[in-house]
Amino acid sequence: MRASSQFKKGALEMCVLHFIQKEDRYGYELTQRVNQFIPITEGALYPVLRRLVKESYCEIYTKESPDGPSRKYYQITQKGTEYLELLEHDWDEFVEQVSKLRRAD
Questions:
Q1: What span, in angstroms and rounded, lies between the C-alpha atoms of 12 and 15?
Q2: Phi and psi based region of residue 24 (left: phi greater than 0; alpha: psi -120 to 50; beta: remaining)
Q3: For residue 57, what pLDDT is reported?
Q4: What is the pLDDT of residue 41?
Q5: Which residues contact 24 (CB under 8 A, 6 or more apart)?
Q6: pLDDT recorded at residue 8
Q7: CB neighbourhood size of 104 (10 A)
Q8: Kind and range of the H or E element at 56?
Q9: Integer CA distances (angstroms), 62 to 21, 24, 33, 72, 100, in order
Q10: Alpha-carbon gap, residue 95 to 26, rounded angstroms
Q11: Sign of torsion over alpha carbons 97, 85, 33, 61
Q12: Using an 8 Å Cβ cutoff, are 24 and 87 in contact?
């Protein structure tokens, strides 16, 4: 497995929470949105969404779709917002430290 795959796996939770913090979204829509920045498969996203729901970082509700069957939308919870803030802080710190390491000697 390439290192970039591991980077994506580690950052995907944060990306998903970021997007649903801005606006409730359904799974396929989330995949498309993330894919604008980080190439992922739709199959990679659903295990992350299930885990986020299980850990109460987001909730699901169903909404009628004008284009077909009802869709499951994901909505961030207060706990998810707090978790996202922690993830973003830790990510920024990690990136800063790796950047320092790469500039050293």
A1: 5
A2: beta
A3: 98
A4: 81
A5: 61, 73, 74, 75
A6: 75
A7: 6
A8: none
A9: 17, 11, 20, 5, 45
A10: 29
A11: positive
A12: no
Length of the chain equals 105
pLDDT of residue 44: 87
| pLDDT given for residue 1 in this prediction | 52
Per DSSP, 87 falls in state H
Q: What DSSP string runs through 15-42?
A: HHHHHHHHS-EEHHHHHHHHHTTS---H
Cα-to-chain-centroid distance, residue 35: 11
Side-chain-side CA neighbours of residue 17 (13 Å): 25
Q: Indicate the pLDDT class of residue 67, thresholds 50, 70 and 90.
A: confident
Residues 81 and 95: their CA atoms lie apart, in Å, by: 21
Could you tell me which of 58, 50, 62, 55 has the C-alpha nearest to residue 20? Answer: 58
